[in-house]
C-alpha cells in the first residue's frame, strides 16, 4: 500500500546549528506551513526549537 501524501515525512533541523535532526510525519491539512517544535538537542544538551526543512 502506498503512503498517503497527506502525511508526508519531514525532517526537523535544530536551530542551534548543530546539524542534529529528527524525522517525523505531519498532516498537511492541519499544518500547511513549516512546522516548529521544541525538542531536545543532545549535542547542546538542552531543549531548542527545531524547524522543518524542505
**Biggest beta sheet summary:** 4 strands, antiparallel
Number of structural units classed as domains: 1
Which spans have pLDDT < 50 for at least 5 consecutive residues? none
Strand order of the largest sheet: 2-1-4-3
- Kindly identify the CATH topology: Rubrerythrin, domain 2
Main traits of this protein?
Rubrerythrin, domain 2; 4-stranded antiparallel sheet; 0% helix; ribonucleoprotein; structural constituent of ribosome
Show the helix and strand layout.
Layout: E1 9-14, E2 21-25, E3 36-41, E4 46-53
Antiparallel strand pairs: 1-2, 1-4, 3-4
Quickly describe the structure.
The chain is mainly β.
Care to describe what's here?
With 54 residues, the protein is mainly beta. It has a single domain, classed as Rubrerythrin, domain 2 (Single Sheet). The protein is 0% helix and 46% strand. The chain contains no helices and four strands. It has strands spanning 9-14, 21-25, 36-41, 46-53. The protein has a four-stranded antiparallel sheet with strand order 2-1-4-3, with no helix packed on it. It is elongated, with a radius of gyration of 12 Å. The N and C termini lie far apart (25 Å). The model has no long low-confidence stretch (mean pLDDT 93). Belongs to the bacterial ribosomal protein bL33 family. It holds the Pfam family Ribosomal_L33.
